[in-house]
Design brief:
6 helices; 116 residues; single chain
């Protein structure tokens, strides 16, 4: 249900919120989020949706990236994500760790340089 709400609010064709709302809440433009999501999914399989042991779908890539971005952008504690994304504290921390490691892998050559 959390995934469906996130998709209906920000990503499906009939958006609840405008592009300006998206940019305000995510601190980036919609097309950059999509690009970031695509690159993160290609590099790290953690960000692909899998099934849990009961055969139900796990957290979506959109949910995982959203949690990581909100924790970094707003300084939100991991346990507060349970209220908005229905994700446990330990899962949020794992997601943030995977996200940061993946971002370094993806953008290291282009953006991270030795100090001069």
């Amino acid at each position: 249900m959390t995934h469906a709400n996130l998709m209906n609010n920000y990503f499906n064709p009939n958006l609840v919120y405008t592009q300006e709302d998206f940019q305000y809440r995510f601190l980036m433009r919609h097309h950059f989020f999509k690009s970031l999501l695509r690159e993160v999914q290609q590099v790290n399989s953690y960000f692909r949706q899998k099934q849990d042991r009961a055969g139900r779908p796990g957290f979506s890539p959109h949910q995982k990236v959203t949690v990581a971005l909100r924790m970094m952008a707003y300084g939100s504690p991991a346990d507060s994500m349970d209220e908005t994304q229905c994700m446990s504290e330990s899962t949020c921390l794992d997601t943030l760790e995977h996200f940061c490691d993946t971002i370094v892998k993806v953008y290291k050559e282009e953006y991270l340089r030795e100090p001069n």
